[in-house]
Every structure is written in structure tokens, then in C-alpha cells.
């Protein structure tokens, strides 16, 4: 945590590393969108298995991502429990049948196969994109990220904003640490020891140096960039941009086929849901 | 005041640095409210200031990027509906720039009152109307659950902006020096 | 004679936010191939003049302009920053803000990317300049992994890559340790000759810049040029102190020894200095001064015992370090960047927790004291004032610590005003802090800690960015509280002059431990330590060595004489 802020990019020498950032970005976005739209369990499971296999190929070590995994699990469980608490019959509404497992139909908290199945689908939707996102983050050189955004059609100014965010997050973070300690030394307090308003005031006093020094920074960086002609043309080139190679086209083709399959399933299922109970 | 080109570069940098600050605030600054598992949303207070200084484009994009990056790092994958709603709220806060005119010096009480009514409405539209609707369409989650989440977020964020945002706006506007106003006092 | 490449004619400028012009009737010609140093106290307008060269004025800083300013054949007020940037490369004071790329090579290529050059062209250009500036092994490094000197070389590469003929440096020495500063000056000199550059350096540390030859020294005061001549001529007139600038040390030594400056030749460069009978005069002076016994500080205040700390326990930054600071001492802590000077202070203040060892302060163990409890006794002032300032008005900022400690309002006002007067900020007391210069902000943060009257102060680079007058005032003030209140003061510094003239004891950190702990004069005359800790030999040392005088003795006597004169 001290040195690595964003989940660590590393060149692990796999074909995933060699793909251009634009390819990985497009694939991730494409598969995320189709996965968010569909409720076809078979399709979601398929994508999940596909991304887990890719994850295996990426040579990312589990312990590098174990922290994220535990957060995801916590997040998913919390949401699934909330869905159950607020709407224990939602699955029945969606699928139109009721197979009771526990309790009877007139109990508020009963358990049906439909509800379990629906929540299983939700779980898949919460998690299917995670391996893809991790692959994308951990095999794409942050330096190439902005160039990739620009390549897929986002303006270079916005793309460069993302690059600036990535460049300065470590600096802002270490600034925050230093400032926070120095302010606590002066007597500002944000922990639960203090009253609510004292905490908020303390928090603001800690934030202020961070915010004001960041605002100053915006001015100086803008000048530095202007002195080096940022924004001169309608386009700009990127030192780190990668050209598309054969594998990039192949990968995009595979992803396009997967997306088409997902769309085809909408037709087959006559909607977003695949209903095994009919 | 400044020329067009400098302003457009400033917007780019403000977006990037704004996103970095929002990322760090979301990740590290937790002021407990006293209710378990709920924290004051410090980053949205900062967003109000960012919008008032740099306008809708910088604020909207900054929170979109900052929130998306934070989700990537924390949850592996962004929760897109909320990220987009946050971005729209950033845009809405940025639209207040011309009315607040924060660069010209201290803010009047009436402007602050107006801004706070405005932000409560904006947060309402964002968290009670848009975000739950998005969750229902995309994730097909039950309405009761997402509306409870939306209303909770609306309340917390409105209060966060009302306290932190307002204080930041006031403090920032006080630092703006009026043209030719500074003289040494002996 | 060739036409000037930079030419100001009766040029004046007033910022929109100010009531008075910052530049008044500037007349200045700089010719191609010249290397010019613009010096002056802070607020003299030297940085403003720099901004006129690259077009930031009037493009980014609007204001009233009168007269004309031509740079490389273009009228500044009518050219865009982009146009001027092809001719003027600017290396800003803050290397972190200038370094916008994620890695070294991207930052070098940044302006070429904006010019939409192809990857091939960019690779050729970056390879060429990486060789020239010795950056080849660092190309994929992130800025967070570089030292100050390396970042500055990247900044230079990033502007030289445009093949601009004018290079502008804004306080290039501000964030460098002495050894890097020396290397940087040598590199600039080398580039000036090999790349046919016209170089303008804005800096107030004249002696450090003069380590390499300078063609012209321009001194500014209150927005006007008050001296514009060869350095030798200006130094000879002994105007430096009067103009608010620090005179080179060797020059002060010559004066102390009673040498008549009119008999000297090449007074701007110690290496070429020629004075009849100098050896004789210096030896006579040295023999005539008796060293007094140093003041003893027998009463221990902070004891550090076998302290060990490292983010990665296998590579400790502080490794089994033990030392004692005594009450009333004025100590300087020096060493290369990244050797743990700040880490050590963070351990003392409780910002970091050591893996091993313990500390006692005033006889009490520090382990169980919180950051805040320690802060009541040990004040720590960060290097960057922007990281400490949390109020918008100067008065509120200085009063904040007292308010949080529940002191009554009348006492607060009295104490705040007192400390503001001492720090030279009284006349600004109702200003917003945002309107202050860097050096002034620094004084605000020092005032905000001093007002709490701690028993010990740790200051990180207390005089960075301050001109001579404020430097002298600040150090005079610290010396005063050190004597009167018997306050222990530890200064973390790169400034050899400060360490020599104001501290009684120097602790040199290196590879996690103390390399040397001795009187400053001993440290600065020890070749091995100077090398290991990236310090720099002062000109006093070279002067003494060249004239067969024991350098340690000479330096110690010089310091004693200077202090007595103060």
C-alpha cells in the first residue's frame, strides 16, 4: 500500500500484455455493457468462465488481488442480503412461477428457487466483469492508457486529463498523509473522540491545505503545459501509443462475436431474462 | 480575464487534478457521521468547489474519472450507474459557476442559500430519480431496495455539500483578492 | 555588434491585483550566446521579468503593460505563448509541476506530442537528449522515483528537445542538494557552449551560480534594474549586502582579513583570483584570531536510542540510530536527499512509528504519546508551507493552534501580533494568505508553530525560497529564541552557509545512520563526508587550502568573526 496505489501494472510477458491498450479497453467496455444488459444465466456464466480462463493466462497472482476480492465479496453479500430483505418475492415476480423451499407463500420472508436463482444472476452480474477489469488494469501500462482512450475516439484533452489524474494521484496521496499528520499535530481532530461538528471542522482544516495546494498546482501545471504547447493542434500524437497488430484484430473479433451472441440471445429469450422455470 | 486557450488547458488540468483529489478523498478521508458504516461524503463537498471554480466540464469529468478509478481500485469494476450520476451532479454543480461568480470575491448569504437549495434539488434528481432508475433498468434490482439506497445517499450527500461544500465555497471566495485591493498596513 | 536576442525598452508591468507596478521602466538587452544571471531579493520583480520572456505575461497573468519587449524578433505582448515557446524554453522552479508525463521518456516527448510528431521522430529526439543529459537509464522511471537533480535534468530535456535557443531557469537551485546544485550549474554551463544557447538564470544564490562563469549579472530591486554589469565589477563595489543579496563567502573572508579589494583581480571566481601577498595576509589574520571555547549544552533533552525504521523492514531507512540532543542546542541535520532526514523527524514527531528502539524527551518516554501530545513540546515545520496552511487569513492561521488549546482571546491577540512582528508579517496581518509569496507563506507557518512556544523546534529547510534580508531576519530570530528561551532547534538543511554560520553542531545522515556528528566547520572540511553526503565544499575551504592554512581552523575562525560582527 505504501508504494503501490493503483493495482499494480507489471509486464508479465503474456499475450495479454502485448495487446494494445485500446483493444483491451474496447473489449472490457463491450463485454461489461452486454453483461450489464443481459440476464441470461448461461451467457453470464460463459463470460465468467471465459474471463477466468483469461485471468489464468494473465499470470496475475491471486495474492495481488486478494484484497480487492474480499471487498467484492463483502459488497456482493451486503447487496444480495439487502435485495432479499427488501424484496424476497422479486424472483417470483420476474419468473412468474413459485417453487417454495422454506416457509409458505403468505410469509413475507420465505425462500423460493426463483429468488435464489434471481440473486444468483445478480451475483454473476456484480462479479463477472471483475476478472476482466483486473486483467485490463494489471496488464495495461498506465502510460498507454491515455493514448488508448484517445484512439477509441475520446478527445485528447479528456484523455490527457485521465493521464494527469494517474500521474498526480501518488503525489496527492502522499501530500494528504503529510498534511493530515501535520494538522493533527496542531490539534485538529477527525476521529470519533471528537463531537460531530468538531470532527467535520477538523476534517475541513485537514482538507483545506490539500485543496488549496492542489488548486495552486492546477495553475502551475497549466502554465507548464502551455509553455510546452499542449492544446496547440486539433490532434496530438502519443509517444506510448501502440499500433494494432494481428492479435488485436483477432481479440476484437472474438469479443465482437461474443457480443453478437449476447444480442442474439435477447431475441431467443424474447427479452433480457432467460427463464428456466417455464 | 484570461485568454481562451489558457482556459481550455486549465480545464484539462483541473479535471485531472480534481479527479486525483476526489480519488484520494474518497479512498482515505472518512469522517464518521455516528451512524454505523456511513461517512460524510467529503469528496462531494470538494466537487461543489471544483464546479464553482472551473465549471461544468471540469467538475463533471473530474468526478466521473475520480469515482470510476476509485471503483476500479476498490471493487475491481465500476458501478456505472452511480459513476454516471456522480458525473451529472458534477456538471450541475459546475453550472452554478456563473451564478456564484466565486472568482470575484466573497459570496453573499443569498447566493449561498440559493446554492444550497439548488444542490439539494440536484442531489434529489441524481440520487432519488436517476440513480435508482438506472439500477432498475441495468441491474433489474427491486425498486424498494434501490430507492432506500438512493434516499439515504441523497440525504448524506446533501448534508455533506451543505456543510463542507458551503464552508469551502466561503473560504475560497474570501481568498480571492479584489482588483487593486491589497495594501500593506503599518 | 550583433542584435540583441532579448530586448526590453522602457518596459513596465502592473498585475491586475496589485496597486503598484511590479516592473518599472526596464531597459535591458541580452545578446545571443550570453549567460545572464538575474538576481534580487524576493518581490524585486525578477520572476515577473522571467514571465515576460516566455509570454506568461501578459497571456496568463493579465495586467497593464507599457513599453516594448522583444524576444527573438517577436514582440512579447503580441505573440502567443505557443509561438514564444519555440524560442524560449522555460525550466520552472517546481520540478513536480513541470513533470507532467507518467515516465521520464513521455515527459521528454511531451512538446513533440503536441506538435504531432511521429513516434519515430520522437524516439530519435528523446534518444539524443537522453544521451546528452545522461538520462538513458531512467527513461521508464516515474517522477516519484527520481531525485531533485534528475527531475531537473528531465525538465531541461523536455524543453531542449524543441531546439529553442533561449533557456530560462527560474530558481534552478531551490530544490537541489549542494552537490546536485553544483552539478546542475556545470551542466548548464556545458549546454550553453555546446548547444549555442542564450541562458537566463533567475536566482538569488549568487555564489552557487558563480561556480561557473557568468557573462553578466543583473540585479533588481523594487521592480527596477539597479545593476547590470560583469559580476566582477558588481562584486568589487561591495554592493551585494546593500542590494539584499548574499555576498560570496570567500569575498567576506577577504574583507575580514583586511584585503583591499582594489588590489584583487578576477574577484568573481575563486579559482582565478589573484591578489598580491594573499597567503601572507590570510595567515596573519588567522594567527591573530583566537578560537573561543564552544558553549557547552550538558542538559539532555531528546534521547534517541537504537532507533530502526523502514517501510520495508528488510531495507530500513533509519538503522539502529542513537543520539542525544541537548537543551539549548542549535543543530543542523544534513545529508543526501532520501537518506531519511525527514523520516527521522517524522519518527520524533510520532508521524511514523519505529520498528525498534525508543526515545525520551525531557526524561519522559515518547512511545505512548500521541502526535498531538508530542506537538505541544516539539514543533515541526514542513518544507512546503502550502501543506500546513489551513486558514485563509494570516492572523487566523497563526492563532489557530492557540484557539484549539483554549487560550483566552486577548492573550491570543498579543502573542500572535508579537510573533507576526518578529517574522516580518505584521503589516500583512489582514491579508489573505493566497496573496503572499512562497517565502512569506513559509514565515506564516513558522509563526503558527512558534506562537505555541514549544521546547524544541524542527524546521525542514527553514530558509528555502527566502532572500538574504528575510533569511537573516529569520535566522536572527531563531538564534534569539534559541538563546533567550534555551530552545533546542534542529534545522534540516541543504544550505551549507546556514549550517556553518548558525548552528553549533552538525549531524550528517547517511545510509540509515549517523556518518558524522561534529562542529559544522569540521564536517565541511572533511572530504570523505562531503562526498558521501552530497554536501559541497565551501569556498572558504578552497581559499584556506590554497593558502596553506588549516581549513578547519580557518573556517571556525571565520564563523566566529562573522557571528561577533552580527
Automatic annotation (TrEMBL), chain A:
<feature type="transmembrane region" description="Helical">
    <location>
        <begin position="67"/>
        <end position="87"/>
    </location>
</feature>
<feature type="transmembrane region" description="Helical">
    <location>
        <begin position="116"/>
        <end position="137"/>
    </location>
</feature>
<keyword id="KW-0472">Membrane</keyword>
<dbReference type="InterPro" id="IPR003339">
    <property type="entry name" value="ABC/ECF_trnsptr_transmembrane"/>
</dbReference>
<dbReference type="GO" id="GO:0005886">
    <property type="term" value="C:plasma membrane"/>
</dbReference>
<feature type="transmembrane region" description="Helical">
    <location>
        <begin position="25"/>
        <end position="55"/>
    </location>
</feature>
<feature type="transmembrane region" description="Helical">
    <location>
        <begin position="249"/>
        <end position="268"/>
    </location>
</feature>
<keyword id="KW-0812">Transmembrane</keyword>
<protein>
    <submittedName>
        <fullName>ABC transporter permease</fullName>
    </submittedName>
</protein>
<dbReference type="Pfam" id="PF02361">
    <property type="entry name" value="CbiQ"/>
</dbReference>
<keyword id="KW-1133">Transmembrane helix</keyword>
TrEMBL record, chain B:
<feature type="transmembrane region" description="Helical">
    <location>
        <begin position="42"/>
        <end position="67"/>
    </location>
</feature>
<feature type="transmembrane region" description="Helical">
    <location>
        <begin position="12"/>
        <end position="30"/>
    </location>
</feature>
<feature type="transmembrane region" description="Helical">
    <location>
        <begin position="151"/>
        <end position="172"/>
    </location>
</feature>
<feature type="transmembrane region" description="Helical">
    <location>
        <begin position="79"/>
        <end position="96"/>
    </location>
</feature>
<protein>
    <recommendedName>
        <fullName>UPF0397 protein IV64_GL002508</fullName>
    </recommendedName>
</protein>
<dbReference type="GO" id="GO:0005886">
    <property type="term" value="C:plasma membrane"/>
</dbReference>
<keyword id="KW-1133">Transmembrane helix</keyword>
<dbReference type="InterPro" id="IPR022914">
    <property type="entry name" value="UPF0397"/>
</dbReference>
<keyword id="KW-1003">Cell membrane</keyword>
<dbReference type="Pfam" id="PF07155">
    <property type="entry name" value="ECF-ribofla_trS"/>
</dbReference>
<dbReference type="InterPro" id="IPR009825">
    <property type="entry name" value="ECF_substrate-spec-like"/>
</dbReference>
<keyword id="KW-0472">Membrane</keyword>
<keyword id="KW-0812">Transmembrane</keyword>
<feature type="transmembrane region" description="Helical">
    <location>
        <begin position="117"/>
        <end position="139"/>
    </location>
</feature>
<comment type="similarity">
    <text>Belongs to the UPF0397 family.</text>
</comment>
TrEMBL record, chain C:
<keyword id="KW-0813">Transport</keyword>
<feature type="domain" description="ABC transporter">
    <location>
        <begin position="302"/>
        <end position="536"/>
    </location>
</feature>
<dbReference type="InterPro" id="IPR015856">
    <property type="entry name" value="ABC_transpr_CbiO/EcfA_su"/>
</dbReference>
<keyword id="KW-1278">Translocase</keyword>
<dbReference type="Pfam" id="PF12558">
    <property type="entry name" value="DUF3744"/>
</dbReference>
<dbReference type="GO" id="GO:0005524">
    <property type="term" value="F:ATP binding"/>
</dbReference>
<dbReference type="Pfam" id="PF00005">
    <property type="entry name" value="ABC_tran"/>
</dbReference>
<feature type="domain" description="ABC transporter">
    <location>
        <begin position="6"/>
        <end position="247"/>
    </location>
</feature>
<dbReference type="InterPro" id="IPR003439">
    <property type="entry name" value="ABC_transporter-like_ATP-bd"/>
</dbReference>
<dbReference type="GO" id="GO:0016887">
    <property type="term" value="F:ATP hydrolysis activity"/>
</dbReference>
<dbReference type="InterPro" id="IPR050095">
    <property type="entry name" value="ECF_ABC_transporter_ATP-bd"/>
</dbReference>
<keyword id="KW-0677">Repeat</keyword>
<comment type="function">
    <text>Probably part of an ABC transporter complex. Responsible for energy coupling to the transport system.</text>
</comment>
<dbReference type="InterPro" id="IPR017871">
    <property type="entry name" value="ABC_transporter-like_CS"/>
</dbReference>
<protein>
    <submittedName>
        <fullName>ABC transporter ATP-binding protein</fullName>
    </submittedName>
</protein>
